Amino acid sequence: MPYSHHSHSGQFCGHAKDTLENVVQDAIAKGFHTFALTEHIPRPIEDFYPEETDSHTVESLAKLFDDYLVEAERVREAYSSRIKLLIGFESEWIRPSTHQLIQAIFKKHAFDFFMGSIHHCHTIPIDFDRATYEQARAAAGGTDERLFEDYFDEQYEMLQALKPPVVGHFDLIRLLSDHRDADFEGMEGVWKRMQRNLEYIASYSGVLELNSAGLRKGLAEPYPCSPVCLAFLRMGGRFVMSDDSHGTDQVGTNYPRLLKFIQKVGIGEVFYVDKDATPTDSRCSAGFSSITVDNLVRLPFWTTAQ
Question: 125 in the Ramachandran plot: left (φ > 0), alpha (ψ -120 to 50) or beta?
Answer without folding.
Answer: beta
